[in-house]
Specification:
The chain is an all-alpha fold. About 85% of the residues lie in helices and about 0% in strands. The chain is built from five helices and no strands. It is globular, with a radius of gyration of 19 Å.
């Protein structure tokens, strides 16, 4: 009986650790994208305007893709992570001077509004990203 309880406890702790590792990986990825965005905005690597716009567009595409992955997972933490990715995408598109970025910003605005409204409806405190996205988009 003790061996079964020990095995069950071990399995539960292992599963909890896996979830934590995934959360840390996602947080690290968000921080890395955020850092890349700040470097592009500050243009510390002296890129031309065209190179900078291409890099910003590329970053926004990747951030939108990651947000969609997070939203498809469905959990509250995943939704908050998805909003973080949308914040990065919106900021990079906002800095991008191309006309094409405007339509993508409207798409981000509608996605983020749905998620933020859902969080409010569930009586969850909206994330700071909800407020930021409402201003940027």
């Amino acid at each position: 009986m003790k061996k079964c309880m020990f095995l069950l406890l071990f399995c539960l702790l292992t599963l909890a650790g896996c979830a934590t590792v995934e959360d840390l990986r996602t947080a690290n990825e968000i921080n890395s994208m955020d850092s890349e965005l700040m470097i592009l905005i500050q243009n510390t690597n002296n890129m031309s305007k065209e190179e900078k716009d291409m890099a910003l567009a590329s970053l926004s595409i990747e951030a939108i893709k990651q947000a969609d992955i997070q939203f498809s997972s469905g959990g509250q933490t995943d939704k908050l992570n998805g909003l973080s990715y949308l914040r990065i995408a919106a900021t990079s598109l906002w800095q991008d001077s191309s006309f094409e970025s405007a339509s993508t910003l409207f798409e981000i605005e509608s996605k983020s509004k749905l998620v933020c409204d859902e969080l409010r409806k569930d009586n969850k405190q909206p994330d700071r990203d909800c407020y930021y996205l409402s201003v940027v988009t």
